[in-house]
Specification:
heterotrimer, A mainly alpha, B mainly alpha, C alpha+beta, A: mainly alpha, 14 helices, 76% helix, C: alpha+beta, D-Maltodextrin-Binding Protein, domain 2, Dipeptide-binding Protein, domain 1, Dipeptide-binding Protein, domain 3, 21 strands
């Protein structure tokens, strides 16, 4: 028991260290890039004095390390600061709602592509070289090659415009929450699913093939066990494991895809918030969004690692020494 | 090399993949000069016409520009950036990965920690933020940023293969001979590890096409009128029902290139790793 | 065991799909609610509001006067009447029965506050230069305001129709709450606001004009994607979508008879050449660029319309719908002459120049690429530099040799002339500072006699044709509404008048 706990704690510890350093880098990166926020707010015709007065008022003239310290202190206590572009608007008031929306979108996409790709990957692997395999493989390859916005555009044109099954709705009626309007999540989640399906199903297929060709599976078949029994009792267990790694490794792509898909569908999530923050050089908002995305992404990576370790007896027993 | 061709003859899919890549490279190099229309020419009387009208083999977009020409010109920039990115990221990956793996110890831990940090931000998000704030995207800035986001992947592969070779006899032999570290790393070890590194490089090629197309879609691609395939899809989205070919063809272009490269990458992996 | 896990997964996936496809919620509303899908606004506090998301602000705030959308006459709104002597002193009498949404009464002090605020350096007020002409403001009683201008401005009243001159409460902290809790005297009160997502406004029960607003509530969605907005319009989820492009408009007209397209006014796109530096300091180079242009191609490629049928082209800043407009013949395209002029100006091998524009502003991309292509044949090699609008305006706009900028039409063009074409004007893109032009502009601003002023405007346009720094493309703005919307009013001031709208 203690081995596992130590393992989890060490993972979380390094995660924390990573995040701290990451926050510093994010802060530096955004603050040091060209483009003066004060100038943006006041416009071109502002006088020099007005611009520097605004910078002074917003604390933009403080030494950068001090600003970082202030920001981090705020973050730790839950205060992500105020938007510089929209004066008086606390970032917390707009950000968390969007975070929730994006998480729901990501979760939906996850729930869609994971079962689908695992199932079809296994199927393709089992029916190796047969027709169904070729179809599935080809489909996987094709979808993998389409960036999310491309599959999104196709989905829109087919389902929303031609067939009119799902109108492209990307707003939540005011006063309601996303949870009571989940139909707007469907098309965007579908688009993400396409790409992820490609990767994961192909990996699942090749891992399944490998396992099916392995000695002990053949031995089991030779012993006379029914094929389906062999598949489900023995092969699956080992074939599924690498997929978890693949899913974990592609989480980064999932998050990137999230931004693309949100932009395409106008979905009110973190991706679109980040885009508009970049457009207006709203530095605190950019920092808050990137930080949050990083945190969520890192947590999901750690979760995948832990899941992998939990399921893989080799890791469990050797205590994480890979 | 012989095994390469032998295997090649046995898998028609790989041949198809290589052929497609080859065709695109030819298109990128020679295509533009063969086009009837330039990629910026505005044929204002033939806007959104179907393929085949008025010598527009693939039709025109909302402004009246020839789609075939734009796709052909666009292939140049996308292939250039993708190629440069895979080369640069592989090269940097080798440098970082080899150094970390070879010297081990603290340098290695520093490397691993840095890679962890770099991997904490999803690559598209990082690229989008940096390029978005910089404002103007050039081939140089695109290549640089995307390569940086790819380093963790290429460096990990390089480091991995170096570690497997590090303890081989020929390495110790070189040490005894008194060869310098650089010599050992790049003259002795590198040739033996080139296989997986190349496989990774081809995978990076495919990824960078996706990245560049996506960044174009997000509005931080190359400046118009450079025809960025990703931007073409987005620009023509509003004429989707009137001129579906305007998004169909750029999408097919992206897909065909990525599929071909993926097939090729798979094949190379099969050949180089299992020999 | 594994089979059951797989089965569970499959069922999970299927059920997820079914739940989500569950369908839209139908809410039965007895009241009349207009729903709008417009772009995501940047800043919304009046003063720094840069002209996006009009539905929102125009319903919360009000102005001293409003323009009739049919006749373009000015009608009293918060001001009951106004007088001037020769244009140097303006007296406004105000309504005495108006309250702000927070209950405080509207008085002359609020008007004074709103105008004085334009000069506040820390705000970056977009009307700062326009109102610098106000020397002093008196409020002899609670419902009278007297403005003393430094110079006579017979057409000054039009300044009060500008969308950034919404009347604000002198008691309210707009610096802190302007972006998150806007507050005015308008026909609609803000009920709920999710920044950058949506807003719900209810009928103002204490509105001073009991006849209006006609509808009970206004719901505004800020939708970044125009396709999504259109889709919502087609499916009936919203009633109005402002600012659709021509292409989409055409498509809608063909596919959906339930949707109407309205073109209430036009905007201008100024292609400005900087005349205080090379290369455009030489009029021959300016003329060369003008000779390289083809208005017919520009019209078709930028808006998919025929020139003269909703899209217009001229070389002066006076819009063709204004009475001051002088119709000058279109310059015939002559690329040979363009090249010749360049050669004479010292560029025998052509000229390379950077063109800056806002890439996410309507028509920006199309116009810049069309100009680039056309200018090529005239000997110009134009390099396009597109940036998002905020960045373009903040970092590049007034400092570059060649630029494309969107300008709203102003009912009184003298305001624009002072801002953009007079030496020292704060938005003088072309850095033009011609003594004779400056004198002409001043004369126009101060001339009380309409006939004389008209002649002066004509002289102005002649000047621009001969040696001006400007090419102007007037682009149409389309509003798409469902047939259920009645009484849509939207004058040249760009302020939609939601209080008059009705739903069938």
């Amino acid at each position: 028991m203690s081995r596992i706990v130590i393992f989890i704690f060490s993972k979380l510890g390094s995660l924390l260290a990573t995040l701290v350093i990451m926050s510093f880098i994010i802060f530096m990166l955004v603050e040091l890039m060209p483009g003066d926020v004060a100038q943006m707010i006041l416009g071109q015709s502002a006088t020099e004095e007005a611009v520097s007065a605004l910078r002074e008022a917003r604390g933009l003239n403080e030494p950068i390390l001090k600003r970082y310290a202030l920001w981090i202190k705020g973050v730790v206590f839950g205060d992500l600061g105020e938007s510089i572009y929209m004066q008086g608007v606390a970032i917390n008031s707009i950000l968390w709602r969007r975070v929730g929306h994006s998480l729901i979108l990501a979760l939906t996409a996850f729930l869609m592509f994971v079962p689908l790709s695992l199932f079809f990957g296994v199927l393709a692997g089992v029916k190796e070289h047969k027709l169904s395999d070729s179809i599935i493989s080809f489909f996987g390859l094709a979808t993998m090659a389409l960036p999310e916005f491309v599959s999104g555009v196709f989905l829109i044109s087919i389902f929303a415009l031609k067939l009119k099954w799902f109108p492209i709705v990307s707003v939540i009626p005011i006063g309601e929450s996303l949870l009571s309007n989940l139909n707007i999540v469907l098309l965007p989640a579908f688009s993400i699913t396409f790409v992820m399906f490609g990767y994961v199903s192909r990996m699942q297929r090749s891992s399944m093939i490998q396992v099916m060709h392995s000695d002990y599976i053949r031995a089991a078949t030779l012993k006379g066990m029914p094929r389906s029994y062999v598949i489900f009792r023995h092969a699956l267990k080992n074939a599924l494991l690498p997929s978890i790694t693949i899913i974990g490794m592609n989480m980064g792509w999932l998050f990137g895809g999230l931004v693309v898909v949100e932009t395409l569908f106008g979905f009110p999530g973190m991706g679109t918030l980040l885009m508009s923050a970049i457009k207006t050089r709203d530095v605190p908002l950019i920092e808050a969004c990137v930080l949050l995305i990083t945190v969520i992404f890192s947590l999901s990576t750690v979760a995948t690692d832990l899941l992998y370790s939990a399921l893989n007896p080799k890791i469990r027993l050797t205590g994480g020494q890979r | 090399m012989n095994t390469f061709f032998y295997q090649l003859k046995r898998s028609p899919l790989a041949i198809l993949g290589i052929l497609i890549i080859f065709i695109w490279i030819l298109i990128a190099i020679f295509g533009p000069s063969l086009m009837y229309y330039t990629h910026t020419h505005i044929d204002s009387e033939h806007q959104m016409v179907k393929p085949g009208v008025n010598r527009h083999l693939l039709g025109t977009d909302a402004l009246g520009r020839d789609l075939l020409s734009r796709i052909v010109y666009g292939s140049r920039s996308i292939l250039t950036v993708a190629l440069l990115t895979s080369i640069v990221s592989t090269f940097l990956g080798i440098i970082f990965g080899f150094t970390a793996g070879y010297f081990g110890g603290r340098l290695d831990s520093l490397f691993l920690q840095t890679m962890n940090i770099l991997m904490a931000i999803p690559p598209l998000v990082l690229s989008m933020v940096v390029l978005g704030i910089l404002g103007d995207s050039t081939i140089f800035s695109l290549t640089l940023i995307v390569s940086i986001t790819f380093i963790p992947a290429t460096a990990r592969v390089s480091r991995g293969v170096l570690l497997t070779e590090k303890n081989q006899e020929y390495v110790s032999a070189a040490h005894i001979r008194g060869e310098s570290h650089l010599y050992v790393m790049f003259i002795e070890i590198l040739p033996n590890t080139i296989g997986p590194i190349i496989v990774e490089a081809t995978a990076r090629f495919a990824y960078s096409i996706m990245m560049v197309a996506s960044l174009g879609f997000l509005g931080v691609g190359l400046q118009p009128p450079t025809p960025d395939w990703g931007m073409m899809v987005i620009e023509n989205k509003e004429i989707m029902t009137q001129a579906p070919w305007a998004i169909l063809f750029p999408a097919l272009a992206i897909a065909s290139l990525v599929i071909a490269i993926s097939i090729f990458s798979d094949f190379v992996s099969k050949v180089l790793i299992h020999e | 065991m594994k089979r059951s896990i797989l089965m569970i997964f499959l069922i999970l996936f299927l059920s997820v799909t079914f739940i989500f496809a569950g369908g839209a919620k139908e809410k039965v509303k007895a009241e009349k609610v207009i729903r709008v899908a417009e772009q995501v606004p940047g800043l919304i506090t009046p003063g720094v509001w840069d002209g996006q998301a009009f539905s929102f602000n125009s319903s919360i705030y009000e102005f001293l006067v409003e323009m009739d959308s049919d006749t373009s006459e000015l009608k009293p709104l918060l001001a009951t009447d106004w007088q001037t002597d020769d244009g140097s002193t303006w007296t406004f009498h105000l309504r005495d029965d108006v309250r702000f949404h927070d209950g405080s009464p509207f008085t002359a002090a609020d008007v004074k506050f709103t105008i004085e605020r334009t000069q506040d350096e820390s705000i970056g007020h977009l009307k700062k230069q326009d109102f610098a002409i106000v020397e002093s403001i008196e409020t002899p009683d609670d419902y009278t305001v007297v403005l003393h201008l430094r110079e006579p401005r017979p057409t000054f009243i039009y300044q009060m129709t500008d969308y950034n001159m919404a009347i604000l409460s002198s008691q309210y902290d707009y610096q802190r709450y302007g972006e998150s809790q806007p507050m005015g005297t308008g026909p609609f009160v803000l009920r709920q606001y999710i920044p950058k997502e949506a807003a719900q406004l209810d009928k103002n029960p204490n509105y001073w004009d009991s006849r209006y607003p006609i509808v009970d509530a206004l719901i505004i969605y800020f939708v970044p994607d125009i396709e999504a907005s259109i889709s919502m319009l087609e499916s009936g989820s919203v009633d109005i979508v402002p600012f659709v492009s021509q292409v989409i408009g055409k498509r809608l007209k063909e596919s959906n008879p339930e949707i109407e397209l309205i073109s209430p006014y036009q905007e201008m796109r100024f292609i400005s050449m900087r005349v205080d530096e090379k290369p455009f300091n030489d009029n021959r180079v300016r003329l060369a660029l003008k000779y390289a242009m083809d208005p017919y191609i520009i019209a078709r490629s930028v808006a998919q319309m025929e020139l003269g049928d909703g899209i217009y082209y001229n070389e002066s800043p006076i819009m063709n719908i204004l009475p001051e407009y002088k119709a000058l013949p279109l310059r015939e395209r002559d690329t040979a002459k363009a090249k010749q002029l360049l050669k004479e100006a010292g560029y025998p091998n052509g000229l390379s120049v950077d063109l800056y524009y806002a890439s996410d502003h309507p028509f920006g991309k199309e116009l810049s690429q069309t100009i680039q292509e056309l200018a090529l044949e005239g000997g110009f090699k134009i390099n396009l530099k597109g940036y998002t609008r905020d960045v373009y305006l903040a970092q590049y706009w007034l400092n570059v040799p060649l630029s494309i900028t969107g300008w709203a039409g102003r009912p009184d063009p003298s305001m624009l002339l002072q801002l953009a074409f007079k030496g020292g004007g704060s938005w003088n893109e072309s850095h033009i500072d011609e003594p004779q032009l400056n004198a002409l502009i001043d004369k126009i601003s101060m001339e009380p006699d309409d006939a004389v002023r008209l002649k002066l405007y004509h002289d102005l346009q002649d000047y621009f044709y001969a040696e001006g720094s400007l090419i102007d493309v007037q682009v149409p703005l389309l509003i798409a509404t469902s047939k259920a919307v009645v009484n849509y009013r939207h004058p040249l001031t760009q302020i939609p008048q939601y209080k008059y709208f009705d739903l069938k």
